[in-house]
Design brief:
Blueprint (H helix, E strand, L loop, with lengths): L10 H11 L5 H11 L3 H9 L3 H13 L5 H10 L5 H18 L8 H17 L7 H13 L11
Helix pairs in contact: 1-2, 2-3, 2-4, 2-6, 4-5, 4-6, 4-8, 5-8, 6-7, 6-8
Amino acid sequence: CRMLRFPELAPADIDAILLREAPQADAAHRAAAIAAGGGSPGAALDFLELDLGAMHQLMGEIARSGDADFSRRGKLAEAMGARPDRKRQLAAIDLARAVIAGQMAQITRGQIGALTQANAELARLTAQAPTYNFDAGLLVMEIGGLLASVAAPRDAGNG
């Protein structure tokens, strides 16, 4: 069975569609939807429906700056919600993968291994998600840990 793949749309084109179809969405929510949509306006609209803007912002902060004191992961758990349904859990994993992919342009050579490993672990979670019954709290901590693992190493004194 072959899947018909349409060409990816540019982020600006998807943003224009989101502005038209979901005018209530602010810039942060649209950015999250565009990042997670992988070039598909339909996927981006689905993500908007799930209100992932806060999660996208937190995931980006964790991937860029780490989370030594777990405070960002705590906020990420709050943004995920106490009892997220499977669709929201899958969306969170997809969003984390998009954040990781977005880091590729900004990493140093020394971070490539961590980024590759984090991407592989998120791919594993994606494969397991349809049949596993994830504990939402543990899932978000695992996602947060993988995102933190790609952050630039800090000086030894700054932890």
